[in-house]
Design goal:
alpha/beta, Isopropylmalate Dehydrogenase, 2 domains, ten-stranded mixed β-sheet, 11 helices, about 40% helix, binds nicotinamide-adenine-dinucleotide, binds 3-isopropylmalic acid, binds manganese (II) ion
Length: about 350
């Protein structure tokens, strides 16, 4: 029987609370399948660890993680530590260090999930965002000159490489071809006269190899308007790191809220472990109260099962999430219920 070695990084705030429920679900899926099992190894990294040890993860952390089949992460960030330190020294270190260049984020309205838009049917919100996850606006390149002086200058570079654009677009075209869906590129070539002009050019160039895939191209400002006014336009979407970050929170808002939105950070070549996480943050405002919605982290667990080739179990987990939403009697407060984080997790487990 295959045993998957999973590195678990619960992290900060509600991270540990929601991850515990995803782990219950994975254990249950394994037990029911009889074909695979999980071995979970916990890492105590995060902001508390930083305040004690002066670092977000151990110095040899990346070497230790490299041997795992996947990483399951809760959330990172706490009020006592500057966000750019906590995120760059843990979450972004892993995404970049393991070349998880695809950030796959479903924006799908499940039955029973609340939608703030009028006259929208379930099939109108059924998108998959393919967010570039290794470079672009998140390249981390720039400088800070003459700190505190009147002539202070701050530069944050966007880095768009041919190889980086090509591989994310190829991934998106392949996905659109496989799923027989349209592919939409979202960019901003009118104002970002180098990076996004190049992005658009690469989208057309790679597209020549996929004449069977119907494409669209939108400017990001118009795209955000259409996501609200006419979400049915979007199926597979490919976009840059920052635009993908922002648009998928918007996507979460139209598809049930942040408590439901999941994401997979993939290294498609499987040279390094991939990482699965809810897209929400550590939510310090509700941490420790057992009210956090665990469905996003459970959906991320379903993405992990898909990635391991157990799509049948990934599907069953997502179906169970949908059944919990449809039933409506066991939901956390963000979805209008009064259930605790643990009760929602238990309900998903019992449906499996
Ligand atoms: P957030 O996602 O933590 O919270 C935004 C709002 O959504 C809050 O009101 C929160 O209570 C609510 N919310 C989020 N997840 C929820 C859930 N599962 N159930 C119910 N409600 C939920 O975003 P923020 O407040 O902007 O950031 C807080 C911290 O998290 C910051 O330090 C930020 O840098 C960090 N962050 C981390 C990640 C990550 O680790 N992947 C992602 C985003 C933000
Ligand atoms: C996300 C988060 C991260 C991002 C932050 C915490 C660095 O917002 O996963 O969406 O911007 O990628
Ligand atoms: Mn985000």
């Amino acid at each position: 029987m295959k045993t998957y070695q999973i590195a678990v990084i619960p992290g900060d705030g509600i991270g540990p609370e929601v991850l515990a429920e995803g782990i219950k679900v994975l254990e249950r899926a394994a037990e029911r399948s009889g074909a695979f099992r999980f071995r979970f190894t916990y890492f105590p990294w995060g902001c508390e660890y930083y305040l004690e040890h002066g670092r977000m993860m151990d110095a040899d952390g990346m070497e230790r993680l490299a041997g795992f089949d996947a990483i399951y992460l809760g959330a990172v960030g706490a009020p006592g530590v500057p966000d750019h330190i906590s995120l760059w020294d843990l979450l972004l270190t892993i995404r970049k260090g393991f070349d998880q260049y695809v950030n796959l984020r479903p924006v799908k309205l499940l039955r029973g999930a609340p939608c703030p838009l009028k006259d929208v049917r379930r099939e109108d919100i059924d998108m998959t965002f393919v967010r570039e996850n290794s470079e672009g606006e998140y390249a981390g390149s720039g400088s800070w000159l003459y700190k505190g002086k009147p002539n202070e200058v701050v530069i944050q570079d966007g880095v768009f490489s041919r190889a980086g654009c090509e591989r994310i677009m190829r991934y998106a075209y392949e996905l659109a071809r496989k799923e027989k869906k349209t592919l939409t590129s979202i960019s901003k070539g009118n104002a970002l006269n180098y990076s996004m002009v190049f992005w658009d050019q690469m989208f057309r160039e790679v597209g020549r190899e996929y004449p069977d895939v119907e494409t669209r191209s939108y400017l990001v400002d118009a795209a955000s308007m259409f996501m609200v006014k006419d979400p049915g336009r979007f199926q597979i979407v490919v976009t840059s790191n920052l635009f993908g970050d922002i648009l998928t929170d918007l996507g979460a808002a139209i598809a049930g809220g942040l408590g439901l939105a999941a994401g997979a950070n993939l290294n498609p070549e499987r040279k390094y472990p991939s990482m699965f996480e809810p897209i929400h943050g550590s939510a310090p405002d509700i941490a420790g109260k057992s009210v956090a919605d665990p469905l996003a982290s459970i959906w991320a667990a379903s993405q992990m099962l898909d990635f391991f080739g157990h799509e049948d179990w990934g599907r069953r987990v997502l179906d169970a999430v949908e059944a919990v939403l449809e039933d409506g009697s066991c939901l956390t407060p963000d979805l209008g219920g009064i259930a605790s984080t643990g009760q929602v997790g238990d309900r998903v487990v019992s449906l499996l």
